[in-house]
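User: I'm curious whether this sequence folds into something compact or stays loose and floppy. Could you predict its structure so I can see for myself?
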Amino acid sequence: MPLPTPPAVEPGPVVALMYHALHTGAVPDGQDPHYTLAVDEFDEQMREVAAAGGGSSAAALLDGTSQARVLVTFDDGHASNHALALPLLSRHGITADFFINPATVGTPGFLNWRQLREMADAGMSIQSHGYDHVYLTQLDAHRLRQTLTAAREEIEQRIGTPVTLLAPPGGRMPKDLLPIARECGYTHVLSSEPGVLAAADGATGPLPRMAMTAATRHVTFQRWIRRDPVAIGHERLRYRGLALAKRMLGDTGYERLRAGALGVLGRRA
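Assistant: Here's the prediction. I'll summarize afterward.
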């Protein structure tokens, strides 16, 4: 059954939400608890997005087939995207981009190609998260071109729809990523940096996204989908602090610090 068309809204600032995985109780193995939301919480968020004028994939906005002011995206290709997110998105008449790694497709806890084709048939956008979730900052220019091209070509072959969008794993973006991504056939790069974009933006720079986590308060989500400049500005400041830590510690050092901090929080919960 085709998805209902989200209500048309006037062009203006747009906010993109970045999700990862959902759960119905205990967080499944392989999913990062920090980036895993309860399914009931996601359902309520999508209900509010639909009531506020509808949501869509970034692909639909960028190709001119949507004027939604809230974009919905998922990274990593967890199995919950098909089992839990897809039915709710369909119920609320919302499309989304799903950024996947071909190397993890069909492995335990992740989507398989049949599920991804079902999602594409339901109107979802299947896009590239790199080939194997290796941070792109760890690759030289030659290897970067290889992995981006291989990811795009395999997804297009398996799904049968164009792959034009790239979301770098972990939000790690080497300084020459944009021109290399365009050489490899991508039209836009979606970052993990918070912010809003105008409906026509994105041709010359990465598109910002707001990371939805288990710690995101509902009132904060509501302010984000209203594109509240104070709430989004606060998140940008927090992101800059984390980005500084990543630069100082490097990818490995930062991941160790993050894992330790989340472990302490988990034991206190």
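Summary: Residues 1-10, 264-269 have pLDDT under 50 and may be disordered. The chain has one domain: 13-132+191-268.
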